[in-house]
Automatic annotation (TrEMBL):
Residues 187-332 form the DOMON domain. InterPro entries: At5g54830-like, B561A, Cyt_b561/ferric_Rdtase_TM, DM13_domain, DOH_DOMON, DOMON_domain. Residues 1-24 form the signal peptide. This is Cytochrome b561 domain-containing protein. It is found in: Membrane. Residues 739-757 have a biased composition (Basic and acidic residues). It comes from Brassica cretica (Mustard).
Length: 767
């Protein structure tokens, strides 16, 4: 054992040196790319980082950010075009990237059979989706990226950000998404900047998880301002337009409102050029230079350049790079240009401070690195925007669902003008033409209700000549934007559901014509009561409810008002005829009211007080039922020649007021019933019925005015005849008003008192 130990140790030492020798041979630094450095070009998943070739078999990645993918690898190809990347690309390392990276640095070793000579592009590649998250171009590669879009390649880019793939002897490629500093403004908003004091400018990058047509604002407050920092502030408004191109404009704030121009004077949050008016032509008030912008994975990013000492002394402030200055920022909705306003104008940001807006003190010369990892948006896919044109039809086709965000992710979706499930922007009054080329297995319809996407278990089958369509839809919509009207489209199982239907006579794979489209359709909507379980279809206006409406009109529109008119205008008739008419009409009206109420309750299985019709109707019925009780409890009438008691006076006034109020409220219930009929049952003739009822009420009012006029004339004539009374005039009209001169009612008891009582007179001789 003692003799063999040195031999064993010696073997280990020799093996170690042999390993170093062999690996040293493999990882030499003979390639011309050694030392080459480049920044990654971001394409997806918020990828950022710096790429550096260390030797012939490894490279370093530093400051690396990326959202996780499904099966992500280091990928190599000769060029960056999609065809070459997919057909000729290959995995270059065992190092996998199936995680989220937060500003990390690491070394990656190439596979043994991979050399730098066989690689022109190093990419971060997702195998299942064949997606390029980002890449760097080596010195022997040329940029042929056919997958770039307008949002990724804006029209304005800086010179140093437009020439990738330089050799190791040239300046390294600087990606427009990389900066020296980064500050976290909120959980969804970041500020990045790179200071160039020698050139006298600062590059600023604004990055936020915000909506497509939202703005990102950043700027400097007026020096020495301690309150209301937005006023007189010098800001830059940035964002992404509908067509995917970025914008960045100088703004000056004179009022915390949307920019408006009146009588040639601008006020609000306005572009610098608006304040100049016609003098802005050829001027240099807008000194902000757009460098780059894109919208990827639900994150808007805009880079612009601002001079430190601006020549515009009216609306821009000089910035001292070494001084702490107050800056402001905001996120909000932007108003697109129109025929009157040619600018993108920010609207009120709203929200909570430190989430949607804020301010802080900033020195551009300080090194800040507060951004740990990439921004991760909840909704990473933006639906494309299609603007309808009256002169060109919109071509509707069907295709595979690639990015459609709403579950359950159907296999096939609609494309409009080759954009997957886009947002269609139309202008009111402008006709829109559609060219449907989607095939017969795809439905296309226009509706304001997007909740059809929530349908599940959709099935259509044909058995024994019977076609059955089945689907499941939630009663309450599952959407997050509760302020949207379609999110309020809930189904109440206790309320009749309006249903329409259509059927085709036959099916064909050929061209759609009038003959093979709808052959049988519902002539009018029908009602389905879901609570009955059998889903029995019913007509819009059910006969029983029609009878209910007619009976209520007969009671509140004819009988009960007629009873009141008889008590008011028929007392001049001898005897108690007016009283009998009053009693018969009121009792008949009450009986019909109760019958109509029972019909409605039985047909609807009860009623609730949720509608105004039920509230008014129930109030009128209660007041009407109080009248018989009130009449039965009336105090006795005063004897002939006695004054009326206070109880009798109160009763007479209350009886009159309650009865008249009941009729007025009952008529209101008739109108609300018509309105409820239109809303609930969709009756087509509701407007005509409303006009007819209104005309009837108008005629009733005219009749009352006429009768009141005649009653007052008759009363004046009676008063005159009393002043010229002589003995033997038995034709005197002893009629009275509803309330006589003593403040009391003349009812049936009064008539009996006048006929059976005695009166005394004093006679004087004639001279």
């Amino acid at each position: 054992m003692i003799v063999q130990r040195p031999v064993f140790l010696g073997s280990l030492v020799l093996g170690f040196f042999f390993f170093l020798f062999v690996n040293g041979q493999k990882c030499s630094k003979s390639s011309s790319l050694v030392g080459y450095e480049s920044e990654f070009r971001m394409l997806q998943h918020q990828l950022r980082g710096v790429f550096t070739v260390l030797d012939d078999c490894s490279f370093r990645v530093s400051r690396f950010d990326m959202l996780s993918g499904s099966d992500v690898h280091w990928w190599g190809a000769m060029t960056s075009d999609f065809e070459n990347m997919t057909d000729s690309g290959f995995v270059i390392s065992d190092h996998k990237l199936n995680q989220t990276f937060n500003n990390q640095s690491f070394v990656v070793r190439l596979l043994d059979n991979v050399t730098w000579d066989s690689i022109g592009v190093v990419s971060v590649w997702d195998l299942p989706t064949a997606s390029d998250f980002g890449h760097v171009l080596l010195s022997n590669a040329t940029e042929q990226d056919s997958s770039s879009s307008k949002s990724e390649s804006p029209p304005s880019e800086s010179k140093d950000a437009a020439t990738p793939g330089k050799s190791n002897n040239s300046e390294p490629f600087k990606a427009p998404t990389m900066f020296d500093n980064c500050k976290k403004l909120s959980d969804k908003y970041r500020l990045r900047w790179t200071l160039n004091v020698d050139e006298g400018y600062v590059d600023i990058g604004l990055e936020a998880t915000t909506g497509l047509l939202n703005y990102m604002a950043f700027g400097w407050a007026k020096p020495n301002t301690t309150s209301n920092l937005m006023l007189n502030a010098d800001v830059v408004i940035t964002g992404i337009r509908e067509d995917g191109f970025p914008f960045a404009d100088d703004f000056y704030i004179t009022k915390t409102s949307v920019c408006s121009v009146r009588d040639g004077f601008a006020a609000g949050v306005c572009p610098d050029t608006v304040y100049e008016g016609s003098d802005a032509v050829g001027s240099s008030v807008n000194n902000t230079k757009l460098v780059y912008g894109h919208r990827i994975d639900g994150v808007s990013f805009v880079r612009y350049r601002r001079p430190l000492n601006d020549s515009d002394n009216k609306f821009d402030f000089p910035v001292n790079a070494t001084e702490n200055l107050t800056v402001i920022w905001a996120l909000g909705v932007i108003k697109p240009p129109d025929v009157i306003n040619p600018y993108y104008l920010p609207e009120n940001h709203g929200g909570v401070e430190s989430e949607n807006y804020g301010h802080f003190s900033l020195s551009l010369s300080d090194h800040v690195d507060e951004c740990l990892g990439p921004l991760d948006a909840d909704n990473k896919y933006d639906q494309g925007v299609i603007i309808a044109d009256a002169n060109a039809p919109l071509v509707v086709t069907a295709g595979p669902s690639v990015h459609y965000p709403n579950p359950p992710n159907p296999a096939k979706v609609l494309y409009i003008n080759k954009k997957e499930a886009p947002v269609l922007r139309v202008e009111r009054g402008v006709p829109v033409k559609f060219s449907i080329e989607a095939g017969h297995d795809v439905s296309f319809y226009i509706t304001s209700d997007f909740l059809v996407e929530n349908m599940t278990y959709v099935r259509c089958k044909s058995e024994e000549g019977i076609i059955t369509l089945e689907f499941t839809r939630p009663l309450k919509p599952s959407c997050s934007h509760r302020d949207r009207p379609e999110c309020k489209n809930m189904i109440d199982p206790t309320t009749p559901l309006k249903v329409i239907w259509a059927m085709g006579a036959k099916w064909t794979d050929g061209q759609l014509t009038e003959r093979n489209m709808h052959s049988v359709t519902s002539q009018r909507p029908v009602r389905v009561m879901l609570t009955r379980g059998s889903a029995e279809a019913e007509q819009d206006l059910r006969p029983v409810l029609g009878v209910h409406g007619f009976m209520m009109f007969l009671a509140w529109g004819i009988l009960l008002p007629g009873g009141i008119l008889s008590a008011r205008y028929l007392k001049h008739i001898k005897g108690d005829g007016w009283f009998k008419i009053h009693m018969y009409l009121q009792c008949s009206g009450l009986a019909i009211v109760f019958l109509g109420l029972l019909f409605a309750v039985a047909e609807l299985n009860g009623f609730s007080f949720s509608s105004s019709h039920v509230k008014f109707g129930f109030t009128a019925i209660v007041l009407a039922c109080a009248q018989p009780v009130n009449a039965w409890l009336r105090p006795p009438k005063p004897a002939q020649g006695e004054l009326m008691s206070s109880k009798r006076l109160i009763w007479e006034y209350s009886h009159s007021i309650v009865g008249q109020s009941a009729v007025v409220i009952g008529v209101v219930a008739l109108f609300t019933g018509m309105k409820h009929l239109g809303e609930r049952n969709g009756a087509e003739n509701v407007d005509g019925l409303n006009w007819a009822l209104g005309l009837w009420v108008f005629l009733g009012v005219v009749t009352v005015v006429y009768l009141e006029y005649r009653e007052r004339g008759r009363r004046r004539a009676r008063n005159l005849s009393r002043g010229n009374w002589v003995l033997g005039n038995v034709e005197e009209d002893d009629s009275t008003d509803l309330i006589d001169s003593r403040g009391g009612f003349r009812d049936k008891d009064d008539e009996e008192g006048r006929n059976g009582g005695r009166s005394e007179i004093q006679l004087e001789p004639l001279k």
